[in-house]
Amino acid sequence: MSHTHARPPRPVASERTPLKARKVSFSWEDTPLHWVPGDPFAAHTINVLHLLLPAGERWFVHVYRQVLPHIRDERLREDVIGFIGQEAMHSQAHDEVLPHLRELGLDPTPYTAQVDWLFEKLLGDRTLPPGRARRWWLMERVAIIAAIEHYTAFLGDWVLNAQELDRRGADPTMLDLLRWHGAEEVEHRSVAFELFMHVDGGYRRRARTWATAFTALVFLWQRGARFFMENDPTLTAGRASFKDFYLSGRQGVLPSTGDMLRSIPRYLSRSYRPSQEGSTAQAVAYLATSPAARAAATAEERA
What we know:
Low-confidence stretches: 1-11
Distance between the termini: 47 Å
Structural class: mainly alpha
Helix content: 55-70%
Oligomer: single chain
Shape: globular
Number of strands: 0
Mean pLDDT: 93
Strand content: under 5%
């Protein structure tokens, strides 16, 4: 375990906002399998989120509940509790898309079983003696989550600004799910990194776990896109390649490869601050107009 502690970078004051879980719900019966019209590759590449996030965000919640006793800053504790609530809701919302995919003839179970194994077994709790070894494994997972959250915030910022999806006539319900989730990722983008800096902060651990997280995300995402394209019952020769991803990024229906690569040195910079990525004001503005978030707020007021 690294004993090198750094002073946590303070968030931009105006960017911090109280976090709360919005109990959203979505109706999927009118959403087509290819919800980006005429572009099954773009739709399925984004659909990988529905395969990765339920297990991944349940894992986030599990790890963060273990780290709560190590938090000595009350404001950070409040933020982490808000983060836990939002992540639990994200997991549930994406999980509810999977039955709809099955109804459309695409059963994701073979892939989700692999993802569940990754988070529950490979990255799950280990039988370790109390003390240094057990804390080391907890800090490793906290650092991995911080690296993953860098990319979920990146994706959240991207989807909030992905106007090409609107121009292509993407399904409004799916767009609202993605943008509600993306807005909350931007809203809480500083929490995971601040938590890591608070409980550990070692730069070597940050760099090492970034490499682990980035490699795993790229591997899982390409496997997921390939799984969807090859098992889509409406496609006769579905395929997914890096060239397809690159071209879709150039067109604006997926994140651009260049933007993703440029995000790497930002995270690895010793002066990195998540609060300088994306815009809380934009995220909060979307959450104020999101059909699902507004319906959740109305239901909460009536309760």
